[in-house]
Amino acid sequence: MPKKRLQTIKFPTELVFNTLLGFYISQLKERNTYLVATNSPTRVLKNDLPKLRIDQRKLATHKKEGVQRFSFCKKTAKNHVKRLREAKVLINYTYVNQNKPISVNFNPEIVAILDGKPPKRQLTESQFFNYNGWKILHDNSDNNKVLKRNKKKDFLIFHKENECGLMQQQNVSLAESYKTTIRISNAKQTSPRENVATIRKILPDFLKTGAKSNGTNNTVTVNFLAKLMEEKTLAQELSAGKYDNHKGLSYHYLQKVIQYANVTTEEFRSVLIQDFVKSSAKIWKNHQSVHVGSWKNAINNLNQTLFKGITQKEGLLKKLKEYRWKLDFARKWFLKSKIPALYPSLYFDVHRKASNGIGFYGLHSIWKSHLKHQQNRIEKQKESQQQESARKRKAKMKQRFENTIKAYEKGKYTTAQVYNYVRNNLPQSYVSELTKRIEEIKKTA
User: Fold this and answer.
1) How far is CA 442 from the centre of its chain?
2) Largest pairwise CA distance in the chain
3) SS3 of 279, please?
4) How confident is the model over 104-122, as a mean pLDDT?
5) Whole-prediction pTM value?
6) Contacts of 110 (CB under 8 A, 6+ apart)
7) Please, which residues have CB within 8 angstroms of residue 424's CB and are 6 or more apart in sequence?
8) Is residue 30 scored above 70 in pLDDT?
9) N or C, fewer C-beta in 10 Å, the chain?
């Protein structure tokens, strides 16, 4: 195992360390202000100093005199703190969760409380030096010699076996003599396209015999492709009103076809187009009858324009949801306005993109408005949920604060314990509120 390289403290990490010292001074001032206001002592033992609370986000966005101190993100700030911990500059690391700041202590050999007393001067010769970073490396020269001798011995044994003809007698190739080597097969492998082509040749026999005993894959494929109809027959049935109450193929079934059926994207698209045409028959349910030629022309137009440019089955399924919504919107609009719809060959004309053309492709702007309305509704619901969560959280924090004050009045906690609990578990606004409440309690006592 290679030895770990000894890292040194770089200049950016030193700047972070200086900023952390400033944070620590501010936290000590805040603590002492509270203790003085409550007539409590501020003294602590030399080796029992309060921990430094580090919020990496505040460290990354820290500003000095209105100018941002650092130009890095929260992740980089976390890495700098981690580097200081690895160098033993910060010790006694404590992590609660991602919503709470971490707590650390400064190394007492680096940061110490002087209590107003200047340090003793020391000469260079008598300064204490203690470094624990050295590592004792073992001499591996003997092991290397043994390894070299073993390699030479194996090489001689291999050639000796080869000279005796053992490998020729067993008829083993050089690649097969190694356990981790896989022999390359010369057998011809069929491509996925060839497999699909083979299935296409078998499908007519499946349709004639109705065989369903070859697994779920073949059954789903045969049943799905059986939904394809001749365009002329489909136009005649549409003209006869056979699909006036047609319910389109369910999305669950289509998703199952995507996962298990062995169909191409073109075949999947053809079935979706015919199912879409059947679903559109509801628009002309209460109108005058539509002749076969109009339906046939509409089918020809949709075969060329519908789902154009989509090469994935998942994309076709997603687009189908949009087209079905447009059909349902058009059906309701025609019923409400009592305006007769155009013939299918005109209604599905790709050139009728204007809103006053009353064509299918003119509904794109309405679809965009629908998506925007849905997005706004989702954002409002999310905002409402966030506000409700904030109200509950605020009420919960207030209740915890009141319970802490009651426990203090009963003598269960000291002033320092109450302060530490409120500072670590409640928002910052409750720290100033705590000082006022404790002063009121002491006046009434």
Assistant:
1) 52
2) 110
3) helix
4) 70
5) 0.50
6) 89
7) 53, 100
8) yes
9) N
